[in-house]
Amino acid sequence: MEIIERIILVGAIQGFFLSFFIMVKKNMNFHRLFAFILFLITLAFSIAYLQIVLDVNSFPFLIKLNLLFPLAFIPLLIVFLKKITGTFQKNQPLNFLFFLPLLLFLGYNLPFYFANNEIKIDYFLRFEMGNKASISEILEDVLIEFTLCLFSIWAVIEAKSYAKRIDDVFSNHTKTKIGWINFLSFSMFTLTFFAFVLSLIPLFLDQVPLEFHFITAIGSTLIVYYIAYFFLINPDALKDISDNLRHTFEMIETEAGKQVKKQEDLNAEIEHKILQVLEHQKLYQNPELTIGELSEKSGIPVYLTSKIINQNLKTNFYTLVNRYRLQQVKKELMLYPKKTIIEIAYGAGFNSKTTFYEVFKKETGIAPSEFIQQNKSAN
Length: 379
What we know:
Blueprint: H1 2-24, H2 32-53, H3 70-85, H4 93-97, H5 100-113, H6 117-128, H7 135-169, H8 175-200, H9 215-233, H10 240-280, H11 291-298, H12 302-312, H13 317-335, H14 341-348, H15 353-364, H16 368-378
Helix pairs in contact: 1-2, 1-9, 2-3, 2-9, 3-7, 7-8, 8-9, 10-11, 10-12, 13-14
């Protein structure tokens, strides 16, 4: 047990120094999040160390406290990986769901954290010390470890995406400079999977060896050892690859935005041309007008004509053409009172009395005769 204590203690000291070094290093604002993640990891197994060396009867507030940190730093690791791969989007609801398990766990255990010391110590003796815990305590631990395992799988996927994007951008790059991302994510998965399996053991055995509970703490400590050594020999590992990658994809996104803007401008130009042909050539007066004829007259392909009408104008060909017909009808109803309503309707392009009345009533909410009376009264 003494050697375990020393390993965890040295790892904690290294972790705090390393997180501080990354946090204060200039021109590395983007990676302060990683420094915070490393700090939380270090804090988690520091509490585990304190639980070993301190008398829990004197410090009962430490009991069950370290369970909060993995629910925070593993989701943050996913956020970090999404940031360096360029897939992170601000204000996306999914980002907040990452921390839902943490909030649920915290809410569920608030009564425990504010409970008296006897309850906390009893939990420590029954669960942390390897004695038989209650089924609710066991299931709670299983659920937490299963959640962490799922998050770790997600982190592995994001790490693979990081490596792929680097291959898409750089013709040459040092594999060792990106290997630490894979190491971190796969190590987290290995530890969380082991912890998940370990959480299942109390369902079948009355007692779990105490040493098993410190394997994840030792594993986290070894991860810190590796990262500390890695940054000693690769001090720019956090900067040159990730920053260049992020800058490149920012340029790509900017160019993509420009292309979207160009496409929007082009669509606006096509829209204007379609409406100009329809209005100025009065194609709508042709009762047999089809979208194919409109496409031919405007010189715009049929699929693009249909797309512009549906997406840009937020309508369909039938409604668009009949709106132009109605505009002419309403104007001529006031200009030519001697003409019959149907005569005017047919002249505007309607070929059915029933269709005309349906369209007119739908668009105006009144019948043509009522429209005439209202406009006469207004004049």
